[in-house]
What we know:
The protein is α+β, with helices and mostly antiparallel strands. About 35% of the residues lie in helices and about 20% in strands.
Amino acid sequence: MARKLQSIRGIHDGLPAEVAKWCNIEDVARKVFASHGVSEVRLPILEPTSLFVRSVGEETDIVSKEMYAFEDQGGDHICLRPEGTAGAVRAYLQAGLTRAGAQRWFYMGPMFRRERPQKGRLRQFQQIGVEWFGVAGPVADVELLSMAQRFLNALGIEETRLEINSLGCIECRPTYHQMLVAYLQTCREQLCATCNERIEKNPMRVLDCKNKACQEQLTDAPEMVGHCCQACDTHFTGLKTGLDALGVSYTVNPRIVRGLDYYNRTAFEFVTDQLGAQGTVLAGGRYDGLVESLGGTATNAIGFAAGMERLEMLLADLKGHQLDVVVASLGDASLAYSLRVADALRQQGLAVVHAGGGAAKRQFKIADREKSRFVVVIGDDELAKSGLMLKDLATGKQDFYVLDDAIQVLSGVSMIE
RNA sequence: GUGGACGUAGCUCAAUUGGUAGAGCCUCGGCUUGUGAUGCCGGUGGUUGAGGGUUCAAGUCCCUUCGUCCACCCCA
Length: 417
């Protein structure tokens, strides 16, 4: 079939079955996050392009190749946000909250990156993000991670594992960088072409190269966790101790790296092997320097983002009723009455659709297809007695009720959220 | 951006060396104008993703393009 009009590549429609799962994820997020005192914020989808150049990093692919950036009619350079953290920091500063104490925020919404689409990767995708500002010690890291773990558990996603690492800070990372580059130079010949580029651009990226030949060369490579300064080391130890105390299981993976420039110290990922190459379901870390680099006073911060579509793929399709009642009317005489019955049931909070009359068989099939729990049959008899025939589709039982009694029976049975 | 696989009915898929585009499911109607299954009968539904080329003849071969999927890259 010719598709003359279609959505843009990598930008998909959210249809009812999918949106139902998103709503479920959002409900769980709101509930779990609220128990940690985290409040929802709604931030702009359009931001100044310079915001991401300054925060995410000019050299990152996200900024240099993947942003939907353009000049608007007034000549301003604006873009569709490729991620949420930078905008959150901007909003935090713009609202003047640097002296307002800790801020714990979450948001959900679309992000945009012009990548080649594949499994778990779209050009418009949804993220649920959490950003905590003004929280310094490792206790915040511990609580954020245990919250993330509880979020996944509450969704019923059990098969992820948590990997953590420390990325060091501006004190210790430069030294480590030099060591790493020096090491990589020694085996440069054996590393793949991409890794050779990474030595210049982002040497830590070599550590998580997927190429086996590269990984073989890296067995003796220096790791950040072994070369942290005292303060970073203490922080990382505090994180591990806290996770142990809460029974949050994790593995230290010294090869975890962050793609965005603003991260320091704690980096973490919840990963699964059920999503092919896009196995990261939820990831984040500390970004203590970002607020300052965007013009604010030095403010510690930590956060994460989870990909909605990736979470969704780990969830089973939702079952359950879409409707409480389908009203089937038989014969012209009772049609008006049946419409009024349908409306009366709706006023009781039930989800009701009128099947439109016609053959009883057809109307029952509609009820099945629309996943209704009950069918109310109304014909001449029911009209004459001012009542209705109520059939439970699961059990097949049906009984006659006068309208008030039927409402009584049906009250509180709504299966629809 | 690179490499590969794939686009035929609403869905899942057939169609021999190039030779009349089909099936199952779904849907709608009938058998049955008061009941969901099954059965039987019938109907709707296609410019074979789009555009161009080769040929007497193209779903099939060639080119272009759009899209989907997988991996690289990157990342949630």
